[in-house]
User: Fold these one by one.
Assistant:
Number 1:
Amino acid sequence: MATMPDKTAKKITAWYEAKTETHREHLGASLIGHHCDRYLWLTFRWADTPQFSGRLRRLFDTGKREEPRVYKELRAIGVELHTEDDGKQIECRDLMGHFGGSVDGIGKGFVEGPNTWAVLEIKTSNDKSFSDLRNQGVKRCKPQHFAQMQTYMGLMKLGYAMYICVNKNTDDLYSEWVAYDENEFVGITIKSSMIVTSSRPKPRISDDPANWLCKMCDMHALCHQEKVSEFNCRTCVNATPVEDGKWMCEMQKKHLSADEQRTGCDSHMFIPDLVPAAEAIDANEAHIEYLDKRSGKTFKNGNGAVLSRDFEAGRAKVLGVSAKVPFDDEIPF
């Protein structure tokens, strides 16, 4: 009888792929070192949800499974390690409450500083990346990881971090004792505040869709292919981040829970920068009027006009054009 390879493997991969992504409520320290401020703003505003393959999701899970193993190893060599606070990951946030993250642990007893409490950060990498890390160090080779640790150290008032990376190909370990850098943290604080408080997205790092940094980005379709942003409160002109990590609806004059933010309402009006191929030409409390650059016609977005939850179909109906306009710009990849 002929063999039928990979059927079970494919079903497992499909199971991972079927998992739904949930937007993070805060701007994460793990992302703040990203090279594109626009990407950070779009992520914080829940403008789009990255789509990952089942294989990639399983790879993420592999990285998380290394953490308990490293915890065990560190405790075995005498490190006093704390990984939870009241049964949850140890969290830290900035004063406004919208920026921060969860540390892998806080420890004391590392060889490099036996009497010093330090942040613990655990990562995994492939063989090439691991080699680069060993040769160049975390600041140069992994700037996002470096910024993440500087954020944790600054917010938690700690002077050092222990960075441990596991080579997924060989199981080799790399460790680096990272010192707190006040200038780095101040720069990160300014950057995160700018992202959180801005009502509009930052400029693209390039207007060329074939730019190598852009074409590898999760937000490529949103920035370069005229994809419509997701419908939720954070993509609405009426939503504002306020103190204590909360969001205020200026239309309803109330704080919005995370569930309410995800659901949205019929009064939703897209932030104009998130409406593709159109220019805002007028606005009032109920709607924003746009000039469609492709047809030369106008349409309105808001209550009593094109509802954001039905944006593509509603806009197409008003303009008398196809709901899906194909992206036909040449991209050499």
Number 2:
Amino acid sequence: MAKQIKAVVKIQIPAGRATPAPPIGPALAQHGLNIAEFCQKFNAATQDKAGFTIPAEVTIYTDRTYTFKLKTPPASELIKKAIGIEKGSGVPNKTKVGKITKAQLKEIAEKKMPDLNTTDVEQAMKIIAGTARNMGIEVVN
């Protein structure tokens, strides 16, 4: 028989820098988890992804055990890294902060494929292009 799920907690933590301090501690402590153990496991699993914020889905069972699934970094972070900007535009319709090529879009879309709701690379590129436009980044050929 499968374990009974108590809760599913979604959190975003900088890779390799999980600490028991807020927001991680309070989010997981209310379900009775060993936060120090979770932080050690998360940091070990994300050491190679330093510099990115990694979304994680923590499934907590009634017997206080847990599993966590790591997702790919947010599309906005991948876009910022690809074109080398600090942050997106505050007024994306008026102020453009950079340009991204179709090749860069395809590369980001392929990285994000497991977390997107499509299996087609062209559709994934459209999703990433929409994120880029909302950040004030122009998509060029």
